[in-house]
Amino acid sequence: MIELIVEDRCIGCDRCVVVCPTDVFDAVADDIPIIARQEDCHTCMSCELHCPVDALYVSPRGEPDPTVKPDAIVASGVLGSYRRALGWNRAKPAGSENDPGVLLKFMRRPDPNDKVRTQLYELAIRKYI
């Protein structure tokens, strides 16, 4: 569940607002977006993947986590770790047309010989991620 927008990192690009499938964020004129409907977050991680400056923290928990401390999250180095684990660079897939985000955008299936991307694609279609 989305827990945090790090204000001093956020550049106000509103990508999170655009990519969120459940409309969790609200854009604010001349300011950073706000988490307006946290309870609607499905923990799909799309916002975190598309954030070009790693300003978002999405907890793997399905419920709000009252123990989240912004300073501890920033210091831990966890910001952007999901994006890096998937091989994304600067909020974009690593340049291949077979990356899950690109495939889902155009609803194209990956190469059937690529078992990892096929599995990620199938999970995403089922809305598990």
Q: What ranges have pLDDT less than 50 throughout 5 or more consecutive residues?
A: none
User: Largest sheet, order of strands side by side?
Assistant: 1-4
Mean pLDDT: 81
Radius of gyration: 15 Å
CATH class of the largest domain: Alpha Beta
CATH architecture of the largest domain: 2-Layer Sandwich
Major β-sheet profile:
2 strands, antiparallel
CATH topology tier name of the largest domain? Alpha-Beta Plaits
Q: Roughly what fraction of the amino acids lie in strands?
A: 5-15%
Percent of residues in helical segments? 25-40%
Global structural class: alpha+beta
State the domain count: 2
Task: Based on Cα principal axes, name the global outline.
Answer: globular
- The DSSP helix count reads 6
Using DSSP, what is the number of strands? 4
Please tell me about this protein's structure:
- This protein has helices spanning 15-19, 46-50, 70-76, 81-85, 100-105, 115-125; strands spanning 2-5, 25-26, 34-35, 56-58.
- By secondary structure, the protein is an alpha+beta fold.
- The protein folds into 2 domains: 2-92, Alpha-Beta Plaits (2-Layer Sandwich), CATH 3.30.70; 94-129, no CATH class.
- The strands form 2 sheets. The protein has a two-stranded antiparallel sheet. Strands 2-3 form a two-stranded antiparallel ribbon.
- Strand 2 (25-26) and strand 3 form a beta hairpin.
- The protein is globular and about 45 Å long.
- The N and C termini lie close together (12 Å).
- The model has no long low-confidence stretch (mean pLDDT 81).
